[in-house]
Amino acid sequence: MNNVAVIGSQWGDEGKGKIVDWLSSEADVVVRFQGGHNAGHTLVIDGITYKLRLLPSGIVRKNKISIIGNGVVIDPWAFLDEIEEIKSKGVKVGIDNLIISESANLILPFHKEMDEIREDAAGKAKIGTTRRGIGPAYEDKIGRRSIRVMDLISEKNLDQRLETVLLHHNAIRKGLGKNIFKKDKLKRDLLKIAPEILKFSKPVWKKIYEFKKQNKKILFEGAQGILLDVDHGTYPFVTSSNTVASAAATGSGCGPNSINYVLGITKAYTTRVGEGPFPTELKDDIGEKLGTRGKEFGTVTSRKRRCGWFDGVLVRQTIKISGIDGIALTKLDVLDELDEIKMCVAYKIDGKEIDYLPAAVEDQLKVKPIYKSFKGWKSETKGIKKFDDLPENAKTYIKELEKFIETKVSSISTSPERNDTILIEDPFKN
Questions:
Q1: CA 4/CA 410 separation, integer angstroms
Q2: Which residues does residue 352 pair with via DSSP β-bridges, in sequence order?
Q3: CB half-sphere exposure, 311, CA atoms < 13 A
Q4: Tell me, what CATH number does 173's domain have?
């Protein structure tokens, strides 16, 4: 029996929702370990669509424990709203199936405002954030001035912590000509909702240890792709947390030996939301076709995703960075109507061929993709559940992709429907 970490191997939006839903049906415990409500997973179960942002995917299934780890930043009002939204669809949410870390840091209203101020002021240099306060909240965490879930227990302690964080933020706001935040009002607002937050609060590291001793199957659920990792992504066009698989250990309070299998969710082409380098981006009819057929709009922001060919160089790189054991290849059916399909197998920069994405953003923007072309299969793969039933050209594309990225394909998704999956290897049983 394995514990499994699921992460996106590209820039996010790889179709993790469907795969995580499938895995969560096998898991006993599902853990979110980084990010906030800037991430979105769409699940379709028994014809009901659930759009989750902060809550782990296991929450929509009976007899599962869902955990929000210490590595997550929590907007307490958005958290409570999402619970009510999910309850309205008949999902039970209570202290018996949902736990949040007492050490998790809170996103407060001034974080969201600072996010918006910075993006608006950046002009063409904007990052393309979701404007939900994620980055400023992580800044306060690293700066040791943030408010954590446990700080809601004591009014005296909360007052002191607010004094510290507002000293910093109000100085900046004053310099920018913005109104300062009133501590007393914010304190009242937080104390009002504190009981509803604190009832879910527990030492997550301790609970995970107990679950491990009970031989529970644990699924660690990443929220964004590796290429958005603050250390290993296309910096500065990244998120403000570590999205690699090893972050599951630090973001939940368990050792790295708790993760037995790393599954990288990988789209059969490439997409990106927001700004930043994108070597294989297609700004033509094919790019539009991929976006239309793939319904490429963000779950959280509804922003149109940029689309391009599969970038094998990038995926091979993220596999090595994050220790991915196998990939779940998604949205193969989106490629069904194409006459020709391309895969990036190298880059060229300043006349030199390279086999990785350089770290400097200036160089990332300069690289040109070198492609290998494949014949399209021009037939429908939607709903196919056996590898042998795929068109020959589709099988060739998958085998060549697998060979290039040097990692096995453990499953293939042939539609958004949960059951339309070709299972080659079960991560929990491998």
A1: 13
A2: 349
A3: 28
A4: 1.10.300.10
Q: Are residues 38 and 156 in the same domain?
A: no
81 is catalytic: no
Beta partners for 105? 73, 148
For residues 147 and 287, state if they share a domain: no
Number of Cβ atoms within 10 Å of the Cβ of 116: 14
**Is residue 254 located within the same domain as residue 269?**
no
Q: Are 228 and 243 in contact (CB under 8 A)?
A: yes
34-39 average pLDDT score: 86
User: What is the domain extent for residue 59?
Assistant: 4-101+201-261
Tell if the pTM clears 0.90, that is, is over it: yes
Could you give the CA distance from residue 4 to residue 427 in angstroms, rounded to a whole number?
Answer: 7
Contact in structure between 265 and 330 (CB atoms under 8 Å)? yes
Q: What is the tally of structural domains in the chain?
A: 3
Identify the active-site residue in 13, 115, 140, 151: 13
pLDDT of residue 420: 87
pLDDT recorded at residue 130: 74
Q: Which residues contact 231 (CB under 8 A, 6 or more apart)?
A: 242, 244
Query: Pick the catalytic residue: 37, 41, 111, 232?
Result: 41
How far, in Å, CA of 35 to CA of 247, rounded?
11
- Judge if 237 and 211 occupy the same domain: yes
CATH of residue 223: 3.40.440.10
Q: Name the CA dihedral angle for 350, 353, 355, 360, rounded to a multiple of 10 degrees.
A: -10
13 is catalytic: yes
**Residues 304 and 194 grouped into a single domain:** no
On the question of pLDDT at 298 being above 70, the answer is: no
- Residue 181 · residue 166 · CB < 8 Å: yes
